[in-house]
Amino acid sequence: MSKKYIDVILDDDPLLRAENALVSIPLSAEDQQLVDSMLEYVTDSIIEEKQLEYNLKPAVGMAAPQVGVNKQIFVVRLEEYEDDDIIVEQYALVNPKIISHSEQMSFIKSGEGCLSVEDEYEGYVYRHARVTIQAYDALSKKDVTLRARGFLAVAMQHEYDHLNGILFYDRIDKNEPFKVIEGAIEI
Ligand SMILES: [Zn+2]
């Protein structure tokens, strides 16, 4: 049976640079459907057969503007293996705000990627090593205050940037893409 995933727009689309509106809580049926569709894409995107069958790119997150909806919603989903257990950490954050962050920065050594970016951009994207985010979580259906570090903090800040019209390569130093910031944590 054929399945249809939500369509992702690319970085030549002005909707990725547009303003994103606050969302009313509790979510409307339409907004909940949007959250479910984004999470479904991200969840299935790391399964190899699904990637091949439906041409999905592996992702750990997706923001609403990436599917052409200019609203303040993003999802992040990480799977970690601990012994034989899979630990899933997933969020669908609505109207998120980073309320505090570390001065210390971090970066992913291999660089960042994005579902909306097909070209290769090399260079380090510096992010705060730790962030505290307040939001409504559409999965637990609660207001949450999340403290994130490591890869989760990077993923959260990447998606948060989308809600402000910022793409990861905007943050790469054009003159010195592999500039090393003293004290930054390599991930
Ligand atoms: Zn992205």
List keywords for this structure.
alpha+beta; Peptide Deformylase; globular; binds zinc ion; 3-stranded mixed sheet
List the helices and strands and how they pair.
Blueprint: H1 29-44, H2 48-54, E1 61-63, E2 73-82, E3 85-101, E4 105-107, E5 127-128, E6 130-137, E7 142-149, H3 150-162, E8 185-186
Parallel strand pairs: 4-8
Antiparallel strand pairs: 1-2, 2-3, 3-6, 4-5, 6-7
Bound molecules: zinc ion.
Total tally of structural domains:
1
CATH superfamily: Peptide deformylase
Write down the overall geometry.
Answer: globular
H/E element order: HHEEEEEEEHE
State the end-to-end CA separation: 40 Å
Helix content: 10-25%
Structural account:
It is a single chain. The chain is of the alpha+beta class. The protein has helices at 29-44, 48-54, 150-162, and strands at residues 61-63, 73-82, 85-101, 105-107, 127-128, 130-137, 142-149, 185-186. It has a single domain (14-186), classed as Alpha-Beta Complex (Peptide Deformylase), CATH 3.90.45.10. A five-stranded antiparallel sheet has the order 1-2-3-6-7. A three-stranded mixed sheet has the order 5-4-8, covered by helices on one side. 33% of the residues are buried. Zinc ion binds at residues 114-116, 158, 162. Zinc ion is lined by residues 114-116, 158, 162.
